[in-house]
Sequence to fold (199 residues):
Amino acid sequence: MERDFAAEIVAARRGEAHAVDSLFARNMAPLVAFIRARAGHAIAARESATDIAQSVFREVLMDADRIELRGEGAFRNWLFMQATRKVLDRAKYHGRDRRDVSREVAIPDASPAADALLACYATIATPSQHVVAKEELARFETAIGQLPDQQRDAVTMSRLMGLEYAQIAEQMGTTESSVRGLVARGLAALSSLLDGADD
Fold:
């Protein structure tokens, strides 16, 4: 299985469409979901999460020969880490005074990025279920955007990236027990925010 993945990476770097398409299909939806959860208003108001994800995917694929990838899980984690860097860079760019979107009025986003996240679900959902799912996604994104940065990072790394607490602690430069607390408080806050949105 790991050999097959290594061969697939090599084929994708050579530009073989079947390998690129296969990697893309398996990894793009979780990557878009991660970026949408991590980006915040400043980026979401100006850029498509799908465009950012495609850019990250291309960059990681081009650098695949320079990094040690121990299988698909390592590849996906590398995608998420590169996405985090890209999001931080874009946040700095948009945070400059002349580009400060905090002064702008947001327009509700019914973008292709949301559709990418719901692609699998949409194949089995009725049109009304699809609309409800989009509304739930928007509520979740609003709620996670309200979390303090460390809680949001811990929750997204734990729940979207599937990292162990020890791995998250290493990435965040803190202790495993601190990460457990951040995830627990973040999930509790999300639950409260989502419950409050129902009132």
Q: What stands out?
A: The chain has eleven helices and no strands. The longest helix spans residues 72-95. Residues 1-101 form a domain with the Rna Polymerase Sigma Factor; Chain: A fold (CATH 1.10.1740). The CA atoms of residues 55 and 157 lie 20 Å apart.
